[in-house]
Specification:
- It is built from four helices and ten strands.
- With 163 residues, it is α+β, with helices and mostly antiparallel strands.
- The strands form four sheets. Strands 5-10-7-8 form a four-stranded antiparallel beta sheet.
């Protein structure tokens, strides 16, 4: 779920490939969509204020966007950096279960998205770091870790617990 601002929804490459096989109109399917997200929910006000109080964000630069993902079972997300329009820091909150996160160092900053397939084409240095985020933890990505490292939620066959 997305909250705050606009976001671009790119069609899934796998869906486009299947659509070609079934001869659906690719000109309609291949277009990205700009979607206006609902405003940030008031239920997050306490968390945003806590991040401001702890100097993660200046009062005048309150977070404007929030993406909520639930990773259960063996789900994950491919390596990527957040869209450059999101600025910094980018924070991630692990709510219930521990979550394995992997970082890949990039040769240069790259804002390619997962859906477009551009993230997987970013040139990497070969350096990789695995981090286990405990449940109820916050990760803050600033500076090089924000711009020059991709992050991913590693898929697992072991399951994730309640999310």
């Amino acid at each position: 779920m997305h909250f705050g601002g606009e976001y671009c929804l790119m069609p899934l490459r796998s869906f486009i490939s299947k659509s070609k096989e079934s001869k659906l109109d690719e000109s309609v399917l291949a277009k990205s969509q700009t979607i206006q997200a609902p405003p940030m929910p008031q239920e997050l006000d306490w968390l945003i204020q806590r991040m401001i109080d702890r100097k993660l964000y200046p009062e005048k630069q309150r977070p404007q966007y929030c993406i909520v993902n639930r990773y259960t079972g063996n789900l994950g997300i491919s390596a990527h950096t957040e869209n450059f329009s999101f600025s910094q820091p980018v924070v991630g909150l692990s709510l219930l279960s521990p979550c394995p996160m992997r970082f890949h160092e990039l040769v240069a900053p790259d804002g390619g998205s997962v859906r477009s397939g551009k993230a997987q084409m970013a040139k990497r240095t070969g350096k990789r770091v695995d981090v286990m985020l405990p449940g109820r933890s916050l990760i803050v990505m600033n500076d090089d870790i924000r711009w020059k490292w991709q992050h991913e939620i590693v898929r697992t066959n072991k399951g994730r617990g309640p999310g």
